[in-house]
TrEMBL record:
Residues 366-375, 779-796 have a biased composition (Low complexity). Gene3D superfamilies: Galactose-binding lectin, Phosphorylase Kinase, domain 1, Transferase(Phosphotransferase) domain 1. ATP binds at residue 489. The chain crosses the membrane at residues 385-407. This is Putative hercules receptor kinase 2. It comes from Helianthus annuus (Common sunflower). Residues 460-735 form the Protein kinase domain.
Length: 811
């Protein structure tokens, strides 16, 4: 977590390449690798490291001001690995390392492994670090930082040590003094420590260069001068795996894989073609209107990068991390490939007052306890700290975008503001509110004991499992002496959902009653378990009857009836309560079918109340939903409306028509997304070609035409242009009437090889773009508004400084 009392800039660097050629790596002129506290490194497998016991880089009073130590107990992940096998401890006064270096920019990397050293507990260590007049760390706790990183990994589903090692990387320009000083100062009644120090030179204009810096959301960009310092926040290898420091180009940078940062849009690897023109958005602001990769690189085989600077504000100083969203959108107004791609990304914090220091991170309640209770404030409304880009609060960001393929950021966060104040508003419009002292509405639905649930599922026997979703496994069971069949949904510990979604589901369904909504019978919150009990839906989910199934295909007429029923359920959510209820996760697996094939909307864990103020038409919230179904406008703006559900339902309509997944990464680019593939076929007049082959002969032409009108109206780019769910219900009922009328006439089904001009929209060529069906790759934003800032063709070409990405896959 990064917190600032003054605005700080962040810089993003995007790395772009068509085909990266193998080039000679950069050769650093200055290289220092100091294993602090070590007396000998000759027996290690990494010859780069030198010990500091008799080093010329330490002060003469090293014995009186510090002492070496080794970890009392090392995690297997760092056991025997330099520089984490030892540490130098400073518990009295300041201690300074001094390195003779050449003039120019340098990487300064500080290695930390919080552990017990000489009976000194890691949570008791607080200290400051400065270098050449820059304050790098102030009252810094390596233990809190490591615990925070461990929690982030856990939230991202990545296993790792409870208190991991980590590296803080800074970029400092050394002037004609030709000395680089690193000073460690313990806080009062505390101690400082360091495991390793690394100093490596870099090309002169690689990062300290404002010539081609593009401001985003600002009229001018701040200069990156030799009087400033940078801190690396993220460095990602898009579409590829982790690259260790030894695998870098001579500057010993580590590159993380990007998979935990992607949210929505295209997630497959990119084919190797070059004629691509796309747009770049950062925090919902236009960074570049047109990036022509081929033009930037002047041909194939040359990587380039683009620098952007953006301000990330923390107006309430709430110490919460904020997402930094980066999106590439294909430019449909060109005659080249409608695509976008990215090879790498670097994000840097930029100092504006000779300080990069920030307070220690706040830990979530699941983080290991610490003695520094006055420092660590626990906040239940804080999001779980998944890996995010930026981690940026009250800051200006230098985004070094290593530009080459679609890159979206992902962060699994819990919404703010979904507290108890909202629960009373779940009342239907015709009923009265009831106050209760209980957190969960036991007066409206039954509270089961864990013993009852265990008996109903034979102690969660896998033979009883009938499904598995984002919340966890779903079991079929019997309650009340086997008189009532129920579906029992049990929260999985590894699920992205949790207590908030559990309470939201109960709060919603206990107060909403509609034939088109699944009925909640009760819940169990006992001995750490979170369990929901529903009416049993004998025919399972809608998706089970569409694809990847051995079940008989649903007739077209029944599919229409199911769509109408689900639309009525969503219409009730949008209009039947005091405030609009936005489902936020409409998809085919959340539409259940009872024994009579009546459709019921289910899974309200991500639902959100609409605006309480009549003057507003949206609520601002972080993006949640399922990839392939998320409304692109909501994705870009983080403004949620009931029209976001309409968009998702439009995707479901295409699923019903085509019987294929909403995303298939292995297909040609235009076919990966079902929504975009449907729009493409509609423009060409070949929508009938993608109908489920099992029902193609059943669909009447006039019904298909009307169904297409409804589906693609739902998928319009702008929410204001989409119909209401009431209009969707009417349109689908009309389509059903057309189908039933056509069934009275023999031979009116859609011929397999016939094309219909009335299904086309505007253009006669597939390569001609339309105004409302641009390719969607996904993005989200924190602030309102956009700015149109076009960059010049400038971009630092370098086939050597980024040659660690030798075989770029990209995204």
């Amino acid at each position: 977590m990064l917190i600032f009392s003054l605005p700080i800039f962040y810089v993003l660097l995007l790395f772009i390449s068509i085909i990266t050629t193998t080039a000679q790596p950069y050769k650093a002129t200055d290289r220092f690798f100091i294993a602090c506290g070590s007396s000998s490194t000759t027996t290690t497998s990494d010859p780069r490291w030198d010990d500091d016991q008799n080093s010329k880089f330490v002060p003469n009073n090293i014995i009186t001001t510090s002492f070496p130590s080794t970890p009392f107990q090392s995690d297997p992940s760092v056991s025997g690995i330099l520089p984490y096998t030892s540490a130098r401890i400073f518990n009295a006064s300041s201690f300074t390392y001094t390195f003779p270096v050449s003039q120019g920019p340098k990487f300064l990397r500080l290695y930390f492994y919080p552990a017990t050293y000489s009976n000194l507990k890691p949570e008791q260590s607080f200290f400051s670090v400065s270098s050449n007049g820059f304050s790098l760390l102030t009252n810094f706790s390596a233990f809190l930082t490591a615990s925070f990183l461990a929690q982030a990994r856990l939230d991202a589903g990545v296993n790792g040590p409870q208190v991991p090692n980590f590296v803080k990387e800074f970029l400092i320009y050394i002037k004609d003094t030709q000395l680089l000083n690193v000073t460690f100062t313990p806080s009062p009644n505390s101690y400082a420590f360091i495991n390793g120090i690394e100093i490596v030179s870099m090309p002169e204009d690689l990062y300290f260069n404002s010539m081609n810096l593009i401001p985003v959301g600002m009229t001018t960009a701040p200069d990156i001068t030799n009087d400033q310092a940078l801190e690396n926040v993220y460095r990602l290898n898009m579409g590829g795996g982790h690259i260790s420091s030894i695998g870098d180009t001579g500057m010993y940078r580590s590159w993380d894989q990007d998979i935990n940062y992607i949210y929505g849009g295209a997630i497959g690897l990119t084919p190797s073609y070059g004629q691509v023109v796309f747009k770049i958005f950062i925090n919902n602001q236009t960074a570049d209107e047109e990036i022509d990769v081929f033009h930037l690189t002047k041909g194939s085989g040359y990587p380039v990068f683009k620098d952007y600077v953006v301000f990330v504000d923390d107006p309430y100083r709430n110490r919460g991390k904020q997402d930094l969203w980066v999106a590439m959108h294909p430019n449909p107004n060109t005659e080249v490939y409608h695509d976008a791609y990215l090879n790498g990304l670097e994000a840097f914090k930029l100092s504006t007052d000779r300080s990069l220091a920030s307070p220690n991170p706040e830990l979530s309640s699941t983080t290991p306890p610490t003695r520094q209770t006055t420092t660590v404030k626990r906040n239940k409304n804080k999001p779980p700290y998944a890996a995010i880009i930026g981690g940026i609060v009250g800051a200006l960001v230098l985004l070094s975008i290593l530009v080459l393929i679609v890159f979206q950021k992902r962060r699994r966060v819990k919404d703010h503001g979904a507290g108890t104040d909202d629960r009373s508003s779940y009342e239907p419009a015709y009923s009265e509110s009831k106050s209760s002292q209980s957190t969960l509405p036991s007066d409206r639905c039954r509270r089961f004991s864990l013993r009852e649930v265990l008996a109903a599922t034979n102690e969660f026997n896998d033979d009883f499992v009938i499904g598995n979703g984002g919340f966890g496994k779903v079991y079929k069971g019997y309650m009340d002496d086997a008189a009532t069949a129920v579906a029992i949904k049990r929260l999985n510990e590894s699920s992205n959902q949790g207590l908030q979604e559990f309470h939201t589901e109960i709060g919603m369904l206990s107060k909403l009653r509609h034939v088109q909504l699944v009925s909640l019978i009760g819940y169990c919150e006992d001995k750490g378990e979170m369990i929901l009990v529903y009416d049993y839906m004998a025919n399972g989910t809608l998706r089970e009857h569409l694809y990847k199934t051995n079940k008989p295909p649903l007739p077209w007429k029944r599919r229409l009836q199911i769509c109408i029923g689900a639309a009525k359920g969503l219409h009730y959510l949008h209009t039947g309560a005091k405030r609009v209820i936005i489902h936020r996760d409409v998809k085919s697996t959340n539409i259940l079918l009872d024994e009579n094939w009546v459709a019921k909307v289910s899974d309200f864990g991500l639902s959100k109340l609409g605006p309480s103020d009549q003057a507003q038409n949206h609520v601002s919230t972080v993006v949640k939903g399922s990839i392939g179904y998320v409304d692109p406008q909501y994705y870009r703006s983080q403004k949620l409306t009931d029209k976001s559900d309409v968009y998702s339902f439009g995707v479901v309509l295409l699923e019903v028509l085509c019987a294929r997944p909403v995303l298939i990464p292995g297909l040609p680019r235009e076919q990966v997304s079902l929504a975009e593939w449907g729009k493409y076929c509609r423009r060409k007049g070949t929508l009938n070609k993608i109908i489920d082959p099992k029902i193609r002969g059943e669909v009447a032409p006039e019904c298909l035409k009307q169904f297409g009108v409804v589906a693609f109206s739902c998928l319009k780019e702008q929410g204001s242009e989409r119909p209401s769910m009431d209009e969707v219900v009417w349109g689908l009922e009309f389509a059903l009437e057309l189908q039933e009328s056509s069934e009275k006439t023999v031979g009116e089904a859609v011929p397999e090889n016939q094309e219909f001009p009335f299904l086309m929209q505007g253009a006669t060529r597939a390569t001609t773009p339309t105004t409302d069906e641009d390719a969607f790759t996904g993005s989200s934003a924190i602030r309102n508004g956009t700015s149109s800032i076009s960059s010049s063709d400038g971009g630092f070409k370098s086939e050597t400084v980024f040659s660690e990405i030798l075989k770029p896959a990209g995204r």
